[in-house]
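Structure first, sequence second, as always.
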């Protein structure tokens, strides 16, 4: 049986790209044949994103719009958007759609079949243009496996779906408000013993969207977060023992 689903989209300075993205996402959700809503949550953008979100929501009964009064960070925006969801399956995708919306129906079906979490496991075609990003991504995933003792391939994928009832107590414990939130939520679900479905997906760089990746700064940031999060992992292990 197909459960109703809430698709949440964290938004920050997305500009005019958001119109096309929502159009693509709605077509993908229509194909699922299930009841759904799309939640757009703006994190105090400084461009026209908020105005565009209001316009989309006013013209589309499937779309709900929410706004932060001040910038909170991507992780907090996803967390707040999930809290607004009204259906039993809830998930989010990054608005750049570098992981195609065509994977959404299968990821929703995984939750229907009994998985607590379904996530995209990104695979990238290797080229000289993206080799640095690929090395950093693979390196990060290796460090998370080794240092946090988890058996997951891609905690940072911007495409995740959850059984809302099951994820609620885990979500309430997440603390990071920024990009490390993805790792935190997946590590917490892993040590909670939840059933996690990892779906191979193709990652295709969206050249229309300006990358916010800062290679050296972000590498140091994430590595530091992993090291400090190891204490939380010890606590999770004791709780599950």
């Amino acid at each position: 049986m197909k459960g109703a689903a809430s698709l949440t989209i964290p938004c920050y300075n997305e500009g005019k790209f958001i119109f096309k993205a929502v159009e693509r996402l709605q077509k993908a959700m229509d194909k699922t044949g299930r009841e759904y809503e799309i939640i757009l949550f703006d994190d105090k953008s400084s461009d026209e994103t908020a105005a565009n979100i209001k316009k989309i929501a006013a013209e589309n009964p499937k779309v709900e719009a929410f706004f932060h009064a001040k910038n909170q960070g991507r992780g907090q925006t996803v967390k707040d958007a999930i809290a607004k969801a009204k259906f039993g399956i809830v998930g989010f995708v990054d608005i750049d759609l570098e992981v195609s919306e065509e994977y959404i129906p299968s990821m929703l079906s995984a939750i229907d079949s009994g998985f607590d979490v379904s996530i995209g496991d990104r695979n990238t075609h290797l080229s000289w243009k993206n080799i640095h990003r690929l090395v950093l991504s693979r390196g990060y995933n290796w460090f998370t496996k080794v240092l946090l003792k988890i058996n997951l391939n891609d905690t940072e994928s911007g495409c995740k779906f959850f059984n809302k009832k099951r994820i609620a107590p885990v979500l309430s414990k997440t603390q990071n408000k920024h990009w490390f939130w993805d790792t935190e939520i997946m590590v917490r679900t892993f040590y909670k013993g939840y059933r996690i479905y990892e779906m191979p997906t193709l990652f295709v760089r969206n050249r229309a969207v300006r990358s916010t990746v800062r290679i050296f700064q972000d590498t140091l940031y994430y590595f530091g977060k992993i090291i400090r999060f190891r204490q939380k992992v010890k606590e999770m292990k004791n709780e599950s023992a």
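Margin note: The helical segments are 17-31, 49-59, 74-84, 104-112, 131-148, 164-171, 181-191, 215-240.
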